[in-house]
Queue: 2 jobs
Job 1
Amino acid sequence: MSCDERRLEYLRSMGIQVWVSRQGERPAPTEDPGRADPAPDDVPASAGRAQTAASVGTPSNCVLSWEDLEARVAGCTTCALHQGRTQTVFGVGNREAGWMVIGEAPGEQEDLQGEPFVGRAGQLLNEMIRAVGLRREAVYIANVVKCRPPRNRDPATEEAAACEEYLKGQVALLKPKIILAVGRVAAQNLLKTTTPIGKLRGQVHYYDRIPLVVTYHPAYLLRSQTEKRRAWEDLKLAMRAFRQQNT
């Protein structure tokens, strides 16, 4: 099976209708001219470029190893979320990956299994990763917050701030070529903005000079099937930004 054939299969598994030219052109998602863009929001857009650090709680010329950073996360009691966790959810994947996927916070199953993006949302994320020609094991996946908020609520500002240095440490160690921020909470925390996700999509942002593309959270896409086409557009934008980093 060719790469294009595999991608076509993955897009169909995501629920995105595609067409294939008789001349063998690359499959593309079916346009939906009848669907209007989301209504504009009055909140001003922000160019929000977050700064990353090379270390967490260490001198500026020192870099923690993956093992040391993970140990610090596992023992963290900085915010109240540690009181209700089963375990921390550090991150998973290839620690030399060019792609980094960042979500908001662990849910119930993530808290139990110690791995981000499991369950139905995780399965859809896997399909999204496959759609760009990769496997889950080939990317690195993490969350803004490492402990599950009660009842899966959005993490509070102070909770995200408590975990920020851990995420910065992961980014500094990984040095990804592209970051895919999935969901409003992840995007707004990474870019330090309150701009709605609808306005953050469709453009390349930067996180410490690393290209960052915003897309919808897989859990949202499971509830809003019609937005999968927009998510595919985001993935194509991320692929273009990634290729530009390698030229």
Note: The longest strand covers residues 210-215.
Job 2
Amino acid sequence: MVTLKPADLAREHGISTQAVRNYERDGFLPPADRTPSGYRIYTDLHAAALRAFLALVPAYGHATAGRIMNAVNEGRLDSALTLVDRGHAQLLRDRETLGAVRNAVGHLTTGAPVPAHEPARTIGELARRLDVTPATLRKWEEAGILTPARNPATGYRIYRPGDVRDAELAHLLRRGGYLLDHIAGVVRQIRDAGGTEGLADALRAWQGKLTAQGVAMLDAAAHLGRYLRLVPTDRP
């Protein structure tokens, strides 16, 4: 294999040599051999690992990208692929949620009622549906995003179809990086079935993010596949 210096890897991506060393330290790159004087010796294996990691970041986020590379470099390929699968599943859920929100907005702007055939949900049921904690739902309620009714017999919160729609929207926009105050304003627009331009802008921006993430996942898969072909099969 061709031998490379840390600067060679760093130069390709416009990062510092210290970043390359940090990525090796964190297990995102396989351990490098050393010269007798202690300098790191990188190879095309390390170059491929760095390309894979940096491609994984925009696709899955820095933390998950790191866990994927850790798993690969520790010989836990199935664990790495499970993380990849979860990322694709979340992207699909985001796309489906975006479609559901657009459908809900369509009902409101045309004057059609929100479908009410679904039963009311408890806070635990809604939390499980969204894969968040009940505390998160209570925080959204404090921010004015959710306005659940109370069961007259027990006093517990109940979430009707409109509340579920608002929670789905909040979950979607939170993953898009929107602050709670902004989300509360968007939800109020939906409830009032009035000026939805702000919501339309938010949904268009999130659609763009989902598209960019999907393309990033394709790019990451290509780089990860090339790296896997270089990883020795006898590694632990």
Note: DSSP finds ten helices and five strands in the chain.
